[in-house]
Amino acid sequence: MVLEIKKYPTPPSVQYATDVRVFDQNIFSLIDNLKDTINANNLDGLAAFQVGSYYNVILIKNEDSTFLELINPRLISTNGKITTTEKTVYFPNLSAEIQRHDKISIVYQDREGAQHSLQAEGALSVLLQRKIDYTFGSTFLPKLSKEEKARFEKKLEFGADVAISEVCPTTFKRDYLTKLSNILTIIIAAIFVASLFVSEVEMLSSLWKTQLYFSYGVLVTNIIYFFYAQYEGKSYSSCTSCQIGNIIGTTVISLTKLTLVMILSYFFVNPL
Q1: Fold category of 25-163 in CATH
Q2: Per-residue pLDDT at 256 exceeds 70
């Protein structure tokens, strides 16, 4: 019988799985139902917890379509680290990067109650760790890094497997540099306007030097903006082309305004 798999946002029916003490027909029926559910949903494994059962039972589908039945599995040793991109049926169509153990050793019982041990690495190791997480009433969320968890929560909010960092935002940190450049340019323009009412050569010379200093500030700010903006833009790979275009356009416009103001100032402010 195919069972219903619990999916987000439906909370699990139980808090955590309890060990099997009696190996009877109830357990055998649960195992058979888990097999049917795995096949019907084209899954590589399933924990009884995922279908609302409180039994500590995990099934893994082998490459030859046979099943590895693990009752009361326990993780007893780990070795090495591996970062994987994982999906789970509880969060349909969503994925997250998580750090797992590369190699593990577990002990478990079969349907006859006999004890077994198993060493696994790579993909099987990751799969077993994911399913064992469920026996403790947990998904992979608690194991995500702070940054990855924030991205995944945004995926949940928008219902799409695209991190917010890959959606073009409307504001950037680099915008502060643009504002600074504009403020400095406005100051230069204000000095130019004020110089039109000054006739003293010494005062004009002082105003011209001040404009030069501010123009250097605009130039440096734009250089910093150009390189930092590209660094920041790498976080938004889904809109790379528009990122580059906006960066170049903003820099060109800022330098063009500076150039025009300084040309006018050269002829009207510069006393030389």
Answers
A1: Peptide Deformylase (3.90.45)
A2: yes
